[in-house]
UniProtKB/TrEMBL annotation:
Upper lineage: Eukaryota, Metazoa, Ecdysozoa, Arthropoda, Hexapoda
Family note: Belongs to the class I-like SAM-binding methyltransferase superfamily. RNA M5U methyltransferase family.
Key words of the record: Methyltransferase, S-adenosyl-L-methionine, Transferase
Residue span(s) of domain Methyltransferase: 360-426
PANTHER family membership: TRNA (URACIL-5-)-METHYLTRANSFERASE, TRNA (URACIL-5-)-METHYLTRANSFERASE HOMOLOG A
Alphabetized CDD domains for the sequence: AdoMet_MTases
GO molecular function per UniProt: RNA binding; tRNA (uracil(54)-C5)-methyltransferase activity, S-adenosyl methionine-dependent
Protein name: tRNA (uracil(54)-C(5))-methyltransferase
Pfam families: Methyltransf_31
GO biological process, one term: RNA processing
PROSITE patterns: SAM_MT_RNA_M5U (PS51687)
EC number from the UniProt entry: 2.1.1.35
Highest taxon in the source lineage: Eukaryota
Length: 623
């Protein structure tokens, strides 16, 4: 038996995550300071630390010194109304440092003894998975719609600050839309199914912290020395019942199996709209020989035939770390045909088709196309479709889906988008191209944005992203007109015109955002004029300063040229020259003062020496 070092309670930190706040960009934000004051003074919660993960987030991490105070905060802030907002508090599971665990290992089994939160395990599962589970769906939609509005209000502010030539264009758009946003924000599209809508779930094998026994469920605590702490799935209203039932049956199998339970990693379930289920069982990458692997596969196959009554049409076995599904057991039909579409994908496809507005002369370029869901939806309405995807298996699925649906005007290419995009664009020169992209959460590289901007045939751009992590840098790169106020960008920008939020995950904090960009001529943007006086340049005067070259005082009242970017750059150059001259003048004045002061001291010292010499001389003569 091996017992780890006991927990030092002085080092424990108990955290919660508070969501639904206004988006803020500094802890010194007055509204945020008011919230923290309310937390400590009105609710009398002993919050010892507040932290946010990234500027612009609408959530905050609060830290409490004890477990009981954390539980009180979770209870009070679970559905707290503050300034018209319904706040949600969820549990942050990474409370205990990894080296401060009190774990007891028993040969063949694992028993975990550690401080437990005074919160039911089912409640922890709900908090970490579907934090909006107790809020009416209409309220969820209102909150997500407000999130989208705040996001793009912030984006409008940033784009006007970083790209001053776009300020006039944004002002004209606001007047055109009669809105405080320069972009048209459509009402959020609700999900057709509020409950039991998920088509994929991943169950982890670990320890139930309540019973200290092996369990299969959703992780509620961080991995500790390879051990996951999981909670029961029964309370999750977003999962179809066959997924929950299969998790319970697999838990019984793991408990009764002769193998060490630590070899089992997780169970992945996918389900399509027809109720067909695909199951993949993953084991950890242990040093197992071929005979042991064969025994494990046989036990899985035998268990599935005897115990699974759900509509499971394929069963996979995979060793964690391998890139593909290594073996397929008892497959009745090809696995690729079982990967169902997201229930919300139908609405997403409709919105993309509406915004793209393709016709028989349009060529659709689908970047990060996956299995071709968006591309195939538009194929029958346009001239041709070209899709690019990194994963070859997805490309095979896309080609097979096109063949099944009788679509012949599609071409799908496997490869890294940044590597093959130039060659693809060369083939599309002269076409009327609409670009569709649904990239990873991290967005795309600056080089890819630059390549698309240089491709003049691209007129429309549809960008699909999540409200969880808005790709702000990508949006700015597509919209930029000048580069750091130094020189204009030699390509026409894509500017966002319309945003459509779609709720594809009810009871969660996330929603999808579909953005429609359109190509604009940079000259047309720079020629946009505002009837109202500019707050930036008009009536600006510069204070009197000393010109060291002419040794005279001058007063400047130079206004910027209205001849576009060139005039603006000339104006900025003059500002820099005057700033240099003013700095040089101040430096000379400072140097002159220092020299004068030092010379004054020298003169004073010399005068004192002369006086002393004269006094000494007169004294000697008297004597």
């Amino acid at each position: 038996m091996n017992v780890a070092t006991p927990v030092n309670s002085d080092k424990l930190r108990y955290k919660i995550k508070v969501s639904g706040l206004p988006r803020f960009y500094s802890l010194l934000d007055p509204l945020l300071q008011e919230f923290l004051k309310m937390i400590n003074e009105e609710l009398r919660l002993n919050c010892i630390h507040a932290r946010y993960s990234k500027k612009g987030n609408a959530w905050l991490y609060l830290t409490f010194p004890t477990e009981s105070e954390q539980a009180v905060a979770l209870r009070l802030l679970k559905k707290y109304n503050w300034k018209g907002r319904s706040l949600i508090s969820t549990l942050v599971t990474a409370d205990t440092p990894k080296n401060n665990l009190n774990l007891t290992y028993v040969e063949g089994n694992h028993v975990a003894k550690r401080p437990r939160l005074d919160i039911p395990l089912s409640e922890q599962v709900l908090m970490s998975t579907i934090p909006y589970h107790s809020i009416e769906y209409e309220e969820q939609l209102r909150k997500k719609s407000e999130e989208a509005r705040i996001l793009f209000q912030r984006f409008g502010t940033i784009i006007q600050r970083k790209q001053p030539p776009l300020a006039e264009w944004c002002a004209a758009r606001k007047r055109q839309l009669n809105s405080d946003l320069a972009f048209e924000l459509s009402p959020i599209i609700p999900s057709k199914k509020v409950d039991r809508y998920r088509n994929k779930c991943e169950w982890s094998v670990g320890i139930n912290p309540d019973s200290d026994s092996v369990a299969v469920g959703l992780r509620v605590k961080d991995s500790m020395d390879g051990i996951h702490y999981v909670g029961p799935p029964d309370c999750l209203r977003n999962l179809p019942m066959p997924m929950i039932t299969l998790a319970k049956k697999f838990e019984d199998f793991v408990k009764n199996n002769s193998q060490d339970w630590r070899i089992w990693r997780n169970m992945i379930i996918r389900m399509n709209e027809d109720g067909e289920v695909m199951v993949s069982i993953v084991i950890n990458q242990h040093l197992l020989d071929n005979d042991q692997l064969s025994n494990i596969k046989c036990s899985i196959s035998e268990w599935s035939k005897k115990n699974i009554t759900e509509n499971v049409v394929s069963l996979y076995f995979q060793v964690h770390g391998e890139k593909t599904l290594a073996d397929c057991i008892g497959t009745t039909i090809e696995a690729e045909l079982l990967w169902g579409q997201n229930l919300g994908a139908e609405e997403l496809c409709k919105v993309v088709a509406d915004l793209a507005d393709v016709n028989e002369n349009t060529t659709v370029l689908d970047l990060f196309c996956g299995s071709g869901c968006l591309a195939l939806t538009l194929a029958k309405k346009c001239k041709q479709v070209v899709g690019i995807e990194l994963i070859k298996a997805n490309i095979m699925d896309a080609k097979r889906n096109a063949e099944i649906n009788g679509i012949v005007n599609c071409e799908f290419i496997a490869g890294r988008t940044e590597d093959i995009l130039d060659s693809v664009l060369n083939k599309l020169k002269g076409c009327n191209v609409t670009v569709i992209m649904d990239p990873p959460l991290t967005g795309v590289s600056t080089g890819l944005v630059r390549t698309l901007r240089k491709f003049k045939e691209a007129i429309n751009l549809i960008y699909v992203c999540s409200n969880h992590k808005l790709p702000l840098k990508n949006l700015l790169d597509f919209s930029s007109v000048v580069r750091y106020w130094q020189k204009p960008i030699d390509t026409d920008p894509f500017l966002p015109l319309r945003i459509v939020p779609i709720d594809m995950c009810p009871h969660t904090l996330r929603s999808e955002l579909v953005l429609h960009f359109k190509r604009f001529c940079v000259d047309d943007i720079l020629s946009t004029k505002n009837d109202r006086p500019s707050k930036i340049y008009n009536n600006r005067k510069f204070r009197t300063k000393f010109n060291p070259r002419t040794s005279e005082t001058v007063t400047s009242n130079i206004q910027p040229s209205t001849s576009g970017v060139g005039g603006l750059l000339d104006y900025l150059k003059k500002i820099e020259e005057r700033a240099y001259q003013e700095g040089l003048a101040k430096g000379l004045e400072r140097k002159a003062f220092q020299m004068g002061y030092s010379r004054g001291l020298q003169c004073a010292t010399a005068a004192n020496d002369d006086d002393k010499f004269k006094n000494n001389t007169s004294t000697n003569s008297d004597q």
